[in-house]
Give the backbone structure.
Amino acid sequence: MSSPATPPQNPPSTDVPPTIEWQRKPAGIDANLRDYDSVASTFDWKTVEREFDWSWTQKVNVVHEAVDRHAVSWRKNKIALYYTDDDRRDEKYTFQDLKILTSRFAHVLKRLGVKTGDRVGVFLPRTPELYIAILGINRVGAIPVPLFEAFMEQAIEDRLGNSEAVVCVTTPALKDRIPRAKLPALHRLILVGAAGESADHEVSYEQAMAQAPDWVEPAWLTIDDGLIIHYTSGSTGKSKGALHRQYAMVGHYQTSKWALDLREDDTLWCTADPGWVTGTSYGIYGPWTLGISSVVIGGRFDPDRWYQTIQRYQVTMWYSAPTAYRMLMSAGDALPRQYDLSSLRHICSVGEPLNPEALRWVRQITGIAPHETWWMTETGMQLICNYRSLDFPIGCTGKPFPGTSATVVDDQGKELPPGQLGNLVVKPGWPSMMKEIWNNPAKYQEYFRIPGWYVSGDTAYKDEHGYLWYQGRADDVIKTAGERVGPFEVESALVAHPAVAEAGVIGKPDEVRGQIIKAFIALRKGHQPSEQLKQEIATFVKNHLAAHAAPREIAFVDKVPKTRSGKIMRRVLRAWDLGEPVGDISTMEE
Ligand code: WT7
Protein backbone atom coordinates (compact mmCIF):
# COMPACT_ATOMS: atom_id res chain seq x y z
CA MET A 1 0.00 0.00 0.00
CA SER A 2 1.19 3.49 -0.76
CA SER A 3 0.85 4.81 2.79
CA PRO A 4 1.86 2.63 5.71
CA ALA A 5 -1.27 0.70 6.60
CA THR A 6 -2.13 -0.19 10.15
CA PRO A 7 -1.49 -3.90 10.40
CA PRO A 8 -4.69 -5.88 10.89
CA GLN A 9 -5.28 -7.00 14.43
CA ASN A 10 -5.84 -10.60 13.40
CA PRO A 11 -3.84 -11.23 10.26
CA PRO A 12 -6.02 -13.38 8.02
CA SER A 13 -4.88 -16.83 7.07
CA THR A 14 -5.81 -18.71 3.92
CA ASP A 15 -7.83 -21.27 5.88
CA VAL A 16 -11.16 -20.14 7.17
CA PRO A 17 -10.70 -20.49 10.92
CA PRO A 18 -12.81 -23.31 12.40
CA THR A 19 -14.47 -20.90 14.84
CA ILE A 20 -16.40 -19.22 12.05
CA GLU A 21 -20.14 -19.56 12.38
CA TRP A 22 -22.29 -19.52 9.27
CA GLN A 23 -25.51 -17.59 9.27
CA ARG A 24 -27.87 -19.78 7.26
CA LYS A 25 -30.61 -18.19 5.20
CA PRO A 26 -34.05 -18.79 6.70
CA ALA A 27 -35.83 -21.86 5.37
CA GLY A 28 -38.27 -21.15 2.54
CA ILE A 29 -36.91 -17.64 2.11
CA ASP A 30 -38.65 -15.50 -0.48
CA ALA A 31 -36.30 -12.59 -1.14
CA ASN A 32 -36.38 -10.08 -4.00
CA LEU A 33 -32.93 -11.27 -4.97
CA ARG A 34 -33.55 -14.99 -5.23
CA ASP A 35 -30.34 -16.41 -6.58
CA TYR A 36 -27.27 -14.25 -6.06
CA ASP A 37 -24.89 -16.27 -8.20
CA SER A 38 -27.00 -16.49 -11.32
CA VAL A 39 -28.13 -12.84 -11.08
CA ALA A 40 -24.59 -11.60 -10.41
CA SER A 41 -23.31 -13.30 -13.54
CA THR A 42 -25.95 -11.91 -15.91
CA PHE A 43 -27.22 -8.65 -14.40
CA ASP A 44 -27.23 -5.50 -16.51
CA TRP A 45 -28.00 -2.06 -15.03
CA LYS A 46 -29.80 -1.10 -18.27
CA THR A 47 -32.73 -3.27 -17.16
CA VAL A 48 -33.15 -1.08 -14.07
CA GLU A 49 -33.30 2.12 -16.13
CA ARG A 50 -36.62 0.85 -17.52
CA GLU A 51 -38.13 1.19 -14.05
CA PHE A 52 -37.93 4.97 -14.39
CA ASP A 53 -40.20 7.21 -16.43
CA TRP A 54 -37.19 9.12 -17.77
CA SER A 55 -36.08 6.01 -19.65
CA TRP A 56 -38.72 6.83 -22.27
CA THR A 57 -39.53 10.53 -21.61
CA GLN A 58 -35.86 11.58 -21.41
CA LYS A 59 -37.04 14.07 -18.78
CA VAL A 60 -35.06 13.46 -15.62
CA ASN A 61 -35.77 14.63 -12.09
CA VAL A 62 -35.62 12.45 -9.00
CA VAL A 63 -38.64 14.19 -7.49
CA HIS A 64 -40.77 12.90 -10.36
CA GLU A 65 -39.62 9.33 -9.79
CA ALA A 66 -39.72 9.48 -5.97
CA VAL A 67 -42.92 11.49 -5.50
CA ASP A 68 -44.90 12.75 -8.49
CA ARG A 69 -45.40 9.48 -10.33
CA HIS A 70 -46.70 7.83 -7.14
CA ALA A 71 -48.99 10.79 -6.51
CA VAL A 72 -50.80 10.06 -9.77
CA SER A 73 -50.91 6.30 -9.21
CA TRP A 74 -52.82 4.14 -6.74
CA ARG A 75 -50.10 5.09 -4.22
CA LYS A 76 -51.33 8.68 -3.99
CA ASN A 77 -52.84 8.10 -0.54
CA LYS A 78 -50.14 5.72 0.61
CA ILE A 79 -48.11 7.03 3.55
CA ALA A 80 -44.63 8.00 2.38
CA LEU A 81 -43.46 9.39 5.72
CA TYR A 82 -44.44 8.68 9.30
CA TYR A 83 -42.97 11.20 11.69
CA THR A 84 -42.90 11.63 15.43
CA ASP A 85 -40.67 13.41 17.88
CA ASP A 86 -42.58 11.89 20.80
CA ASP A 87 -43.10 15.35 22.10
CA ARG A 88 -44.91 17.95 20.04
CA ARG A 89 -45.35 16.36 16.67
CA ASP A 90 -46.97 13.20 15.38
CA GLU A 91 -47.61 13.29 11.65
CA LYS A 92 -48.15 11.35 8.44
CA TYR A 93 -47.49 12.42 4.86
CA THR A 94 -48.82 10.67 1.77
CA PHE A 95 -47.08 10.80 -1.60
CA GLN A 96 -49.77 13.28 -2.63
CA ASP A 97 -48.88 15.45 0.40
CA LEU A 98 -45.21 15.35 -0.56
CA LYS A 99 -46.04 16.38 -4.10
CA ILE A 100 -47.87 19.46 -2.82
CA LEU A 101 -45.35 20.41 -0.15
CA THR A 102 -42.27 19.96 -2.32
CA SER A 103 -44.04 21.94 -5.05
CA ARG A 104 -44.72 24.77 -2.65
CA PHE A 105 -41.16 24.73 -1.44
CA ALA A 106 -39.90 24.75 -5.02
CA HIS A 107 -42.01 27.85 -5.61
CA VAL A 108 -40.47 29.52 -2.54
CA LEU A 109 -37.00 28.82 -3.91
CA LYS A 110 -37.90 30.08 -7.38
CA ARG A 111 -39.18 33.32 -5.93
CA LEU A 112 -35.79 33.76 -4.30
CA GLY A 113 -34.14 33.31 -7.67
CA VAL A 114 -32.75 29.80 -7.09
CA LYS A 115 -31.89 28.19 -10.43
CA THR A 116 -30.94 24.79 -11.79
CA GLY A 117 -27.49 23.83 -10.55
CA ASP A 118 -27.44 26.31 -7.62
CA ARG A 119 -26.47 24.86 -4.26
CA VAL A 120 -28.88 25.21 -1.35
CA GLY A 121 -27.89 24.40 2.24
CA VAL A 122 -30.27 22.39 4.42
CA PHE A 123 -29.42 22.90 8.08
CA LEU A 124 -32.40 21.52 9.95
CA PRO A 125 -33.17 19.11 12.75
CA ARG A 126 -34.69 15.81 11.70
CA THR A 127 -38.22 16.97 10.96
CA PRO A 128 -40.54 16.55 7.95
CA GLU A 129 -39.36 19.97 6.68
CA LEU A 130 -35.89 18.52 6.18
CA TYR A 131 -37.30 15.95 3.76
CA ILE A 132 -39.59 18.46 2.07
CA ALA A 133 -36.69 20.90 1.65
CA ILE A 134 -34.35 18.36 0.07
CA LEU A 135 -36.92 17.20 -2.47
CA GLY A 136 -38.16 20.76 -3.05
CA ILE A 137 -34.59 21.74 -3.91
CA ASN A 138 -34.39 18.78 -6.28
CA ARG A 139 -37.66 19.90 -7.87
CA VAL A 140 -36.12 23.17 -9.08
CA GLY A 141 -33.04 21.28 -10.26
CA ALA A 142 -30.85 22.84 -7.60
CA ILE A 143 -28.45 20.76 -5.51
CA PRO A 144 -29.17 20.17 -1.81
CA VAL A 145 -26.23 20.38 0.60
CA PRO A 146 -27.39 18.70 3.83
CA LEU A 147 -25.65 19.96 6.97
CA PHE A 148 -25.87 17.75 10.03
CA GLU A 149 -27.82 19.43 12.81
CA ALA A 150 -24.94 19.15 15.30
CA PHE A 151 -22.51 21.16 13.18
CA MET A 152 -21.15 24.35 14.67
CA GLU A 153 -19.88 27.50 13.02
CA GLN A 154 -16.58 26.31 11.57
CA ALA A 155 -18.13 23.18 10.05
CA ILE A 156 -20.95 25.23 8.53
CA GLU A 157 -18.59 27.87 7.16
CA ASP A 158 -16.41 25.22 5.51
CA ARG A 159 -19.34 23.50 3.79
CA LEU A 160 -21.48 26.47 2.77
CA GLY A 161 -18.33 28.32 1.74
CA ASN A 162 -16.95 25.51 -0.41
CA SER A 163 -20.30 24.81 -2.07
CA GLU A 164 -21.06 28.55 -2.51
CA ALA A 165 -24.65 27.91 -1.48
CA VAL A 166 -26.96 30.80 -2.38
CA VAL A 167 -29.72 29.98 0.11
CA CYS A 168 -29.83 27.97 3.34
CA VAL A 169 -32.92 26.51 4.98
CA THR A 170 -32.59 26.54 8.76
CA THR A 171 -34.32 27.41 12.04
CA PRO A 172 -34.11 30.41 14.37
CA ALA A 173 -32.22 28.23 16.86
CA LEU A 174 -29.59 27.09 14.36
CA LYS A 175 -29.13 30.22 12.26
CA ASP A 176 -26.62 31.87 14.59
CA ARG A 177 -24.14 29.16 13.64
CA ILE A 178 -24.17 30.37 10.03
CA PRO A 179 -21.44 33.04 9.68
CA ARG A 180 -23.14 35.05 6.93
CA ALA A 181 -20.43 37.69 6.85
CA LYS A 182 -17.94 35.04 5.71
CA LEU A 183 -20.27 33.57 3.09
CA PRO A 184 -20.59 36.10 0.25
CA ALA A 185 -22.62 33.78 -2.02
CA LEU A 186 -25.30 33.16 0.61
CA HIS A 187 -28.00 35.77 0.15
CA ARG A 188 -31.08 34.35 1.86
CA LEU A 189 -32.03 32.21 4.85
CA ILE A 190 -35.36 30.41 4.91
CA LEU A 191 -36.39 30.01 8.53
CA VAL A 192 -38.61 27.16 9.63
CA GLY A 193 -40.64 27.99 12.72
CA ALA A 194 -39.74 31.68 12.96
CA ALA A 195 -42.24 33.80 14.83
CA GLY A 196 -43.05 37.31 13.66
CA GLU A 197 -41.07 39.73 11.52
CA SER A 198 -37.84 38.72 9.92
CA ALA A 199 -34.82 40.63 8.69
CA ASP A 200 -34.36 41.50 5.01
CA HIS A 201 -32.32 38.45 4.20
CA GLU A 202 -34.71 36.13 6.03
CA VAL A 203 -37.84 34.47 4.74
CA SER A 204 -40.43 32.73 6.89
CA TYR A 205 -40.95 29.16 5.68
CA GLU A 206 -44.52 29.04 6.94
CA GLN A 207 -45.54 32.36 5.41
CA ALA A 208 -43.93 31.66 2.07
CA MET A 209 -45.34 28.11 1.89
CA ALA A 210 -48.85 29.38 2.67
CA GLN A 211 -48.75 31.64 -0.40
CA ALA A 212 -47.31 29.06 -2.78
CA PRO A 213 -49.22 26.94 -5.33
CA ASP A 214 -49.76 23.20 -4.95
CA TRP A 215 -48.07 22.25 -8.18
CA VAL A 216 -44.72 23.21 -9.63
CA GLU A 217 -43.45 21.18 -12.54
CA PRO A 218 -40.00 19.72 -11.91
CA ALA A 219 -37.06 21.26 -13.74
CA TRP A 220 -36.20 18.69 -16.39
CA LEU A 221 -32.60 17.60 -16.19
CA THR A 222 -30.29 15.02 -17.70
CA ILE A 223 -29.04 11.94 -15.89
CA ASP A 224 -25.67 13.68 -15.50
CA ASP A 225 -27.01 16.70 -13.62
CA GLY A 226 -26.51 17.14 -9.89
CA LEU A 227 -28.61 15.28 -7.32
CA ILE A 228 -26.98 16.13 -3.99
CA ILE A 229 -23.66 17.04 -2.39
CA HIS A 230 -22.61 15.27 0.79
CA TYR A 231 -19.57 16.57 2.61
CA THR A 232 -17.28 13.99 4.11
CA SER A 233 -13.82 13.79 5.63
CA GLY A 234 -10.51 12.44 4.46
CA SER A 235 -7.22 12.02 6.27
CA THR A 236 -5.88 15.35 5.05
CA GLY A 237 -7.43 18.75 4.52
CA LYS A 238 -10.89 20.12 5.12
CA SER A 239 -14.06 18.22 4.39
CA LYS A 240 -14.78 17.55 0.73
CA GLY A 241 -18.07 17.63 -1.15
CA ALA A 242 -19.02 14.43 -2.97
CA LEU A 243 -21.34 15.47 -5.81
CA HIS A 244 -23.76 12.79 -6.96
CA ARG A 245 -25.60 12.66 -10.29
CA GLN A 246 -29.30 12.17 -10.93
CA TYR A 247 -28.36 8.77 -12.36
CA ALA A 248 -27.49 7.66 -8.81
CA MET A 249 -31.19 6.93 -8.32
CA VAL A 250 -30.72 3.77 -10.40
CA GLY A 251 -28.32 2.45 -7.77
CA HIS A 252 -30.42 3.62 -4.82
CA TYR A 253 -33.45 1.88 -6.28
CA GLN A 254 -31.89 -1.47 -7.02
CA THR A 255 -29.91 -1.77 -3.79
CA SER A 256 -33.05 -0.88 -1.83
CA LYS A 257 -34.75 -3.70 -3.66
CA TRP A 258 -32.07 -6.38 -3.35
CA ALA A 259 -30.01 -5.53 -0.26
CA LEU A 260 -32.69 -3.92 1.90
CA ASP A 261 -35.14 -6.32 0.22
CA LEU A 262 -37.88 -3.66 0.23
CA ARG A 263 -41.36 -4.61 -0.92
CA GLU A 264 -44.58 -2.74 -1.46
CA ASP A 265 -46.03 -3.50 1.98
CA ASP A 266 -42.86 -2.80 3.95
CA THR A 267 -42.38 -0.13 6.57
CA LEU A 268 -38.76 0.95 6.52
CA TRP A 269 -36.97 2.55 9.41
CA CYS A 270 -33.62 3.91 8.30
CA THR A 271 -32.26 5.49 11.46
CA ALA A 272 -29.64 7.68 9.75
CA ASP A 273 -29.93 11.46 9.56
CA PRO A 274 -30.04 12.95 6.04
CA GLY A 275 -26.99 14.96 7.09
CA TRP A 276 -25.15 11.76 6.15
CA VAL A 277 -25.46 9.84 2.92
CA THR A 278 -27.29 6.85 4.44
CA GLY A 279 -30.11 9.19 5.43
CA THR A 280 -30.65 10.35 1.84
CA SER A 281 -29.79 7.28 -0.28
CA TYR A 282 -31.85 5.00 1.99
CA GLY A 283 -34.00 7.51 3.88
CA ILE A 284 -35.24 9.33 0.75
CA TYR A 285 -34.19 8.31 -2.75
CA GLY A 286 -34.12 4.50 -2.48
CA PRO A 287 -37.36 3.86 -0.59
CA TRP A 288 -39.35 6.59 -2.30
CA THR A 289 -38.37 5.77 -5.87
CA LEU A 290 -39.76 2.34 -4.90
CA GLY A 291 -42.88 3.91 -3.33
CA ILE A 292 -42.19 2.46 0.14
CA SER A 293 -43.40 3.86 3.50
CA SER A 294 -40.66 5.18 5.70
CA VAL A 295 -40.48 6.07 9.40
CA VAL A 296 -38.52 9.02 10.78
CA ILE A 297 -38.17 9.93 14.40
CA GLY A 298 -36.82 13.21 15.70
CA GLY A 299 -35.01 13.83 18.97
CA ARG A 300 -32.20 12.05 20.70
CA PHE A 301 -31.22 8.39 20.83
CA ASP A 302 -33.10 6.58 23.55
CA PRO A 303 -33.36 2.76 23.76
CA ASP A 304 -36.94 2.83 25.01
CA ARG A 305 -38.09 5.05 22.15
CA TRP A 306 -36.28 2.92 19.63
CA TYR A 307 -38.09 -0.26 20.57
CA GLN A 308 -41.28 1.74 20.88
CA THR A 309 -40.81 2.93 17.29
CA ILE A 310 -40.53 -0.61 15.94
CA GLN A 311 -43.61 -1.69 17.85
CA ARG A 312 -45.74 1.35 17.12
CA TYR A 313 -45.13 1.47 13.37
CA GLN A 314 -44.76 -2.28 12.99
CA VAL A 315 -41.45 -1.69 11.26
CA THR A 316 -40.55 -4.53 8.91
CA MET A 317 -37.15 -3.42 7.64
CA TRP A 318 -34.68 -1.81 10.01
CA TYR A 319 -31.47 -0.19 8.77
CA SER A 320 -29.10 1.05 11.44
CA ALA A 321 -25.48 1.13 12.58
CA PRO A 322 -23.24 -1.00 14.82
CA THR A 323 -22.84 1.72 17.45
CA ALA A 324 -26.62 1.93 17.78
CA TYR A 325 -26.92 -1.86 18.09
CA ARG A 326 -24.18 -1.86 20.73
CA MET A 327 -25.82 0.97 22.64
CA LEU A 328 -29.09 -0.97 22.67
CA MET A 329 -27.15 -4.02 23.80
CA SER A 330 -25.64 -2.15 26.73
CA ALA A 331 -29.13 -1.04 27.77
CA GLY A 332 -29.82 -4.70 28.55
CA ASP A 333 -31.98 -7.64 27.49
CA ALA A 334 -34.96 -6.86 29.69
CA LEU A 335 -35.99 -3.72 27.81
CA PRO A 336 -36.60 -5.23 24.35
CA ARG A 337 -38.64 -8.00 25.95
CA GLN A 338 -41.20 -5.39 26.96
CA TYR A 339 -41.92 -4.66 23.31
CA ASP A 340 -43.36 -6.54 20.39
CA LEU A 341 -40.62 -6.64 17.77
CA SER A 342 -42.18 -9.44 15.76
CA SER A 343 -43.01 -7.22 12.77
CA LEU A 344 -39.33 -7.15 11.76
CA ARG A 345 -38.44 -9.33 8.80
CA HIS A 346 -35.06 -7.93 7.74
CA ILE A 347 -32.27 -5.94 9.40
CA CYS A 348 -29.18 -4.32 7.87
CA SER A 349 -26.15 -2.55 9.29
CA VAL A 350 -23.76 0.07 7.93
CA GLY A 351 -20.99 2.48 8.80
CA GLU A 352 -18.40 0.34 10.57
CA PRO A 353 -17.89 -3.37 11.08
CA LEU A 354 -20.58 -5.10 13.09
CA ASN A 355 -18.81 -7.30 15.61
CA PRO A 356 -20.15 -10.88 15.83
CA GLU A 357 -21.16 -10.37 19.46
CA ALA A 358 -23.48 -7.49 18.56
CA LEU A 359 -24.83 -9.39 15.55
CA ARG A 360 -25.70 -12.37 17.75
CA TRP A 361 -27.31 -10.15 20.32
CA VAL A 362 -29.60 -8.46 17.79
CA ARG A 363 -30.42 -11.89 16.40
CA GLN A 364 -31.32 -13.15 19.84
CA ILE A 365 -33.55 -10.15 20.60
CA THR A 366 -35.33 -9.92 17.25
CA GLY A 367 -34.89 -13.37 15.74
CA ILE A 368 -33.17 -11.78 12.74
CA ALA A 369 -29.46 -11.50 11.98
CA PRO A 370 -28.35 -8.04 10.83
CA HIS A 371 -26.89 -8.10 7.33
CA GLU A 372 -23.80 -6.03 6.59
CA THR A 373 -23.80 -3.38 3.91
CA TRP A 374 -20.50 -1.72 3.03
CA TRP A 375 -20.28 1.53 1.12
CA MET A 376 -19.12 5.12 1.42
CA THR A 377 -20.34 8.68 0.94
CA GLU A 378 -18.42 8.67 -2.33
CA THR A 379 -19.94 5.43 -3.61
CA GLY A 380 -23.49 6.70 -3.06
CA MET A 381 -24.91 3.20 -2.75
CA GLN A 382 -24.26 -0.13 -1.10
CA LEU A 383 -21.52 -2.11 -2.82
CA ILE A 384 -20.69 -5.08 -0.60
CA CYS A 385 -23.53 -6.76 1.23
CA ASN A 386 -24.88 -9.86 2.82
CA TYR A 387 -28.16 -10.88 1.24
CA ARG A 388 -31.26 -12.46 2.74
CA SER A 389 -31.10 -15.32 0.27
CA LEU A 390 -27.45 -16.14 0.87
CA ASP A 391 -25.69 -17.89 3.76
CA PHE A 392 -22.75 -15.92 5.11
CA PRO A 393 -19.94 -16.37 7.61
CA ILE A 394 -20.63 -14.15 10.61
CA GLY A 395 -18.17 -11.27 10.71
CA CYS A 396 -17.68 -10.96 6.96
CA THR A 397 -18.60 -7.79 5.07
CA GLY A 398 -20.34 -9.59 2.22
CA LYS A 399 -20.23 -10.04 -1.54
CA PRO A 400 -20.21 -7.41 -4.29
CA PHE A 401 -23.63 -6.13 -5.27
CA PRO A 402 -24.63 -7.63 -8.65
CA GLY A 403 -23.32 -5.46 -11.46
CA THR A 404 -20.45 -4.12 -9.35
CA SER A 405 -17.02 -5.53 -8.68
CA ALA A 406 -15.39 -4.80 -5.36
CA THR A 407 -12.21 -6.76 -4.79
CA VAL A 408 -8.79 -6.68 -3.13
CA VAL A 409 -5.66 -5.58 -4.98
CA ASP A 410 -2.04 -4.73 -4.26
CA ASP A 411 -0.62 -1.23 -4.81
CA GLN A 412 -0.16 -1.94 -8.52
CA GLY A 413 -3.77 -2.97 -9.02
CA LYS A 414 -3.14 -6.72 -9.25
CA GLU A 415 -5.90 -8.80 -7.69
CA LEU A 416 -4.73 -10.70 -4.64
CA PRO A 417 -5.45 -14.35 -3.92
CA PRO A 418 -7.79 -15.34 -1.06
CA GLY A 419 -6.53 -14.56 2.41
CA GLN A 420 -4.15 -11.78 1.41
CA LEU A 421 -4.68 -8.36 2.89
CA GLY A 422 -4.74 -5.46 0.44
CA ASN A 423 -6.58 -2.42 -0.85
CA LEU A 424 -10.35 -2.68 -1.05
CA VAL A 425 -11.16 -1.31 -4.51
CA VAL A 426 -14.08 -1.15 -6.93
CA LYS A 427 -14.18 -1.03 -10.75
CA PRO A 428 -15.47 2.46 -11.60
CA GLY A 429 -18.79 2.79 -13.39
CA TRP A 430 -21.45 1.72 -10.90
CA PRO A 431 -24.58 3.94 -11.09
CA SER A 432 -24.18 5.97 -7.89
CA MET A 433 -20.47 6.68 -8.07
CA MET A 434 -19.79 10.32 -7.19
CA LYS A 435 -19.40 12.57 -10.20
CA GLU A 436 -16.78 14.85 -8.69
CA ILE A 437 -15.37 16.30 -5.52
CA TRP A 438 -16.88 19.76 -5.57
CA ASN A 439 -14.36 22.37 -6.68
CA ASN A 440 -11.47 19.97 -6.22
CA PRO A 441 -10.52 17.82 -9.23
CA ALA A 442 -7.18 16.90 -7.65
CA LYS A 443 -8.92 15.31 -4.66
CA TYR A 444 -11.19 13.40 -7.00
CA GLN A 445 -8.18 11.99 -8.85
CA GLU A 446 -6.72 10.66 -5.59
CA TYR A 447 -9.48 8.06 -5.50
CA PHE A 448 -8.13 6.58 -8.73
CA ARG A 449 -4.47 6.42 -7.76
CA ILE A 450 -4.33 2.69 -8.55
CA PRO A 451 -4.94 2.56 -12.31
CA GLY A 452 -8.29 1.07 -13.24
CA TRP A 453 -9.74 1.15 -9.73
CA TYR A 454 -11.68 3.34 -7.33
CA VAL A 455 -9.63 3.14 -4.12
CA SER A 456 -11.79 3.07 -1.01
CA GLY A 457 -9.02 3.64 1.55
CA ASP A 458 -10.13 0.51 3.41
CA THR A 459 -8.11 -2.68 3.72
CA ALA A 460 -9.71 -6.09 3.31
CA TYR A 461 -9.16 -9.64 2.19
CA LYS A 462 -11.30 -12.09 0.29
CA ASP A 463 -11.89 -15.63 1.52
CA GLU A 464 -12.01 -18.67 -0.72
CA HIS A 465 -15.81 -18.50 -0.89
CA GLY A 466 -15.65 -15.00 -2.37
CA TYR A 467 -16.72 -13.13 0.76
CA LEU A 468 -14.90 -9.90 1.52
CA TRP A 469 -13.70 -9.17 5.06
CA TYR A 470 -13.15 -5.53 6.01
CA GLN A 471 -10.00 -5.14 8.10
CA GLY A 472 -9.59 -1.42 8.74
CA ARG A 473 -8.66 1.87 7.14
CA ALA A 474 -5.39 2.32 5.28
CA ASP A 475 -5.35 6.00 6.23
CA ASP A 476 -5.96 8.19 9.26
CA VAL A 477 -9.71 8.72 8.81
CA ILE A 478 -11.55 8.22 12.11
CA LYS A 479 -14.88 6.42 12.47
CA THR A 480 -16.53 7.34 15.74
CA ALA A 481 -20.03 6.03 16.40
CA GLY A 482 -20.24 5.41 12.66
CA GLU A 483 -19.49 9.04 11.83
CA ARG A 484 -16.51 9.87 9.69
CA VAL A 485 -14.20 12.51 11.11
CA GLY A 486 -11.06 13.90 9.52
CA PRO A 487 -8.17 14.32 11.96
CA PHE A 488 -7.08 17.51 10.20
CA GLU A 489 -10.40 19.22 10.87
CA VAL A 490 -10.15 18.40 14.57
CA GLU A 491 -6.49 19.42 14.75
CA SER A 492 -7.33 22.75 13.07
CA ALA A 493 -10.06 23.38 15.61
CA LEU A 494 -7.71 22.44 18.47
CA VAL A 495 -4.89 24.79 17.47
CA ALA A 496 -7.40 27.65 17.34
CA HIS A 497 -7.61 27.36 21.13
CA PRO A 498 -5.28 29.93 22.77
CA ALA A 499 -3.57 27.34 25.00
CA VAL A 500 -2.79 24.86 22.22
CA ALA A 501 0.52 25.06 20.34
CA GLU A 502 0.30 21.76 18.44
CA ALA A 503 -2.21 18.96 18.18
CA GLY A 504 -2.30 15.49 16.68
CA VAL A 505 -5.49 13.44 16.56
CA ILE A 506 -6.13 9.71 16.22
CA GLY A 507 -9.00 7.23 16.53
CA LYS A 508 -8.63 5.10 19.63
CA PRO A 509 -10.38 1.70 19.65
CA ASP A 510 -13.55 1.72 21.76
CA GLU A 511 -15.95 -1.11 22.54
CA VAL A 512 -19.18 0.77 21.92
CA ARG A 513 -18.27 3.54 19.49
CA GLY A 514 -15.77 1.61 17.39
CA GLN A 515 -13.31 4.46 17.85
CA ILE A 516 -13.19 7.56 19.97
CA ILE A 517 -11.25 10.70 19.16
CA LYS A 518 -8.05 11.12 21.11
CA ALA A 519 -5.94 14.28 20.91
CA PHE A 520 -2.28 14.68 21.77
CA ILE A 521 -1.64 18.30 22.63
CA ALA A 522 1.47 20.38 23.20
CA LEU A 523 0.63 23.51 25.17
CA ARG A 524 1.87 27.01 24.54
CA LYS A 525 4.32 28.54 26.99
CA GLY A 526 2.62 29.73 30.14
CA HIS A 527 -0.15 27.11 30.12
CA GLN A 528 -0.16 24.24 32.58
CA PRO A 529 -1.73 20.85 31.92
CA SER A 530 -4.83 20.23 34.02
CA GLU A 531 -8.09 18.29 33.93
CA GLN A 532 -9.93 21.58 33.74
CA LEU A 533 -7.96 22.65 30.69
CA LYS A 534 -8.77 19.32 29.00
CA GLN A 535 -12.45 19.99 29.56
CA GLU A 536 -12.14 23.51 28.29
CA ILE A 537 -10.36 22.41 25.12
CA ALA A 538 -12.88 19.65 24.40
CA THR A 539 -15.75 22.11 24.85
CA PHE A 540 -14.00 24.53 22.54
CA VAL A 541 -13.96 21.95 19.73
CA LYS A 542 -17.57 21.04 20.46
CA ASN A 543 -18.60 24.67 20.09
CA HIS A 544 -16.61 25.31 16.94
CA LEU A 545 -16.92 22.08 14.97
CA ALA A 546 -19.43 19.58 16.34
CA ALA A 547 -19.98 17.52 19.47
CA HIS A 548 -19.16 14.25 17.70
CA ALA A 549 -15.83 15.72 16.52
CA ALA A 550 -14.63 16.75 20.00
CA PRO A 551 -11.88 14.64 21.58
CA ARG A 552 -13.13 12.34 24.33
CA GLU A 553 -9.57 11.84 25.49
CA ILE A 554 -6.73 14.33 25.66
CA ALA A 555 -3.09 13.65 26.50
CA PHE A 556 -0.62 16.49 27.00
CA VAL A 557 2.78 15.94 25.41
CA ASP A 558 5.91 18.07 25.08
CA LYS A 559 5.89 17.86 21.32
CA VAL A 560 3.67 16.36 18.65
CA PRO A 561 5.77 13.99 16.51
CA LYS A 562 6.17 15.26 12.94
CA THR A 563 8.14 14.29 9.88
CA ARG A 564 10.85 16.64 8.67
CA SER A 565 8.38 18.02 6.16
CA GLY A 566 5.96 18.82 8.98
CA LYS A 567 3.42 15.99 8.61
CA ILE A 568 1.99 14.76 11.90
CA MET A 569 3.07 11.15 12.49
CA ARG A 570 -0.20 9.68 13.67
CA ARG A 571 1.34 6.23 13.51
CA VAL A 572 3.61 7.27 16.39
CA LEU A 573 0.64 8.69 18.31
CA ARG A 574 -1.21 5.38 17.91
CA ALA A 575 1.82 3.49 19.21
CA TRP A 576 2.11 5.86 22.18
CA ASP A 577 -1.52 5.31 22.91
CA LEU A 578 -1.17 1.53 22.94
CA GLY A 579 2.17 1.68 24.77
CA GLU A 580 3.76 -0.09 21.80
CA PRO A 581 7.14 0.42 20.15
CA VAL A 582 7.00 3.32 17.68
CA GLY A 583 8.82 1.51 14.85
CA ASP A 584 10.85 3.33 12.26
CA ILE A 585 11.11 7.03 13.12
CA SER A 586 13.99 7.89 10.84
CA THR A 587 11.85 10.49 9.04
CA MET A 588 10.93 12.23 12.29
CA GLU A 589 12.10 15.80 12.85
CA GLU A 590 14.57 16.39 15.66
C1 WT7 B 1 -16.38 4.24 5.55
C2 WT7 B 1 -17.24 5.17 4.78
C3 WT7 B 1 -22.09 5.17 3.42
C4 WT7 B 1 -22.45 4.52 4.64
C5 WT7 B 1 -22.09 5.25 5.87
C6 WT7 B 1 -20.63 5.44 6.04
C7 WT7 B 1 -16.67 2.31 6.83
C8 WT7 B 1 -18.96 1.59 6.04
C9 WT7 B 1 -18.97 -0.49 6.64
C10 WT7 B 1 -19.18 -1.87 6.93
C11 WT7 B 1 -17.02 -1.96 7.83
C12 WT7 B 1 -17.73 0.06 7.00
C13 WT7 B 1 -15.53 2.10 5.86
C14 WT7 B 1 -15.83 3.09 4.75
N1 WT7 B 1 -17.75 1.36 6.62
N2 WT7 B 1 -19.70 0.48 6.06
N3 WT7 B 1 -20.33 -2.49 6.64
N4 WT7 B 1 -18.17 -2.57 7.53
N5 WT7 B 1 -16.76 -0.67 7.59
O1 WT7 B 1 -20.14 6.28 5.04
O2 WT7 B 1 -19.08 8.07 6.42
O3 WT7 B 1 -18.54 7.80 3.97
O4 WT7 B 1 -17.72 6.15 5.66
O5 WT7 B 1 -17.14 3.63 6.59
O6 WT7 B 1 -14.34 2.41 6.48
O7 WT7 B 1 -14.69 3.48 4.02
P1 WT7 B 1 -18.88 7.16 5.27
About this structure: Residues 95-111 form the longest helix (17 residues).
